[in-house]
Write a structure and sequence with these properties.
about 270 residues; four-stranded antiparallel sheet; about 30% strand; elongated
Length: about 270
């Protein structure tokens, strides 16, 4: 069969201009999708960093708070208060005026327990922060029955080392060893609430005297926590911390977390 005259079909492809327009539209759409993806990833990373910072602060505060609430605990409540239940070191200020990390030392008798025969209810036994057992040495005198003071104290020495909150069982241990309490802790500042012996706090100070340390009724702990991921703080970050303004331009998120803990064994004294 012959085609009808004048009905010849003609086929056309896309012109160059149409191809360029289609490519431009595709690139715009691709860029928009990429922008949304990068923004979503950035938001997820930021949220993850904030959660990890809160977790680090919570872990640190839980461990330090538990130790501070036990500070000065005595197996024999008839013994005088310990003079060295609390100690530490004020870090002072660095060359740039920013505060350097403080150190906190907490001491108390090991927790109540009994011996294998259940005969010595004053015998204390507890593991320190490095997992080593500490057993009290204050059994009653076999002749007089008097209960001496316990010389074997549980000790916690908290310090910031290499952006970690570390606990040493020996305050003189230095930088080696210790148990890591929390990661990404850049600084720790301590303020001590001095009590009047009648459950009232008369003042807060960062540098208590030796006598004031025996009358500390509360400790305020302020931690500077850094996020684990870089490039999250766009344009730097300015923080008010311990009376100083810290300006950080390294791209890490930072937050300040503060809690106050009662030293209940030193709230009352005469």
């Amino acid at each position: 069969m012959r085609p009808l005259a004048g009905r010849a079909t003609r086929q056309r492809g896309l012109g160059l201009v149409e191809v360029l327009v289609a490519m431009a539209i595709g690139l715009v759409l691709l860029g928009a999708v990429g922008y949304l993806f990068v923004g979503s990833k950035q938001m997820n990373t930021t949220q993850s960093d904030l959660l990890r910072m809160q977790e680090s602060a919570r872990n640190a505060m839980d461990v330090m708070g538990r130790a501070l609430r036990q500070a000065g605990y005595r197996l024999n409540v008839n013994r005088p208060l310990y003079d060295d239940a609390l100690g530490g070191l004020d870090g002072g200020d660095g060359a740039d005026g920013a505060p350097l990390p403080d150190t906190l030392v907490v001491r108390h008798d090991p927790a109540w327990s009994v011996d294998a025969a259940g005969l010595n209810p004053l015998l204390g036994h507890e593991n320190d922060c490095e997992g080593e057992p500490v057993t009290s040495d204050n059994l009653p005198d076999p002749v007089t029955g008097a209960v001496p003071a316990n010389p074997n104290l549980v000790q916690y020495s908290f310090s910031v080392i290499d952006a970690k909150l570390v606990c040493h069982a020996d305050p003189a241990a230095g930088l080696e060893g210790g148990a890591v309490v929390a990661e990404n802790i850049e600084n720790m500042q301590l303020t001590y609430g001095i009590g009047d012996g009648n459950e009232l706090i008369t003042k807060y100070t960062a540098t208590p005297s030796a006598l004031e340390l025996t009358r500390v009724a509360a400790v305020r702990v302020s931690l500077l926590v850094r996020g684990p991921s870089p490039h999250q703080a766009i344009g730097g970050q300015s923080l008010a911390y311990n009376g100083a303004t810290l300006v950080k331009n390294d791209g890490y998120l930072r937050r300040v977390y503060t809690s106050t803990f009662t030293v209940r064994n030193q709230m009352r004294w005469k």
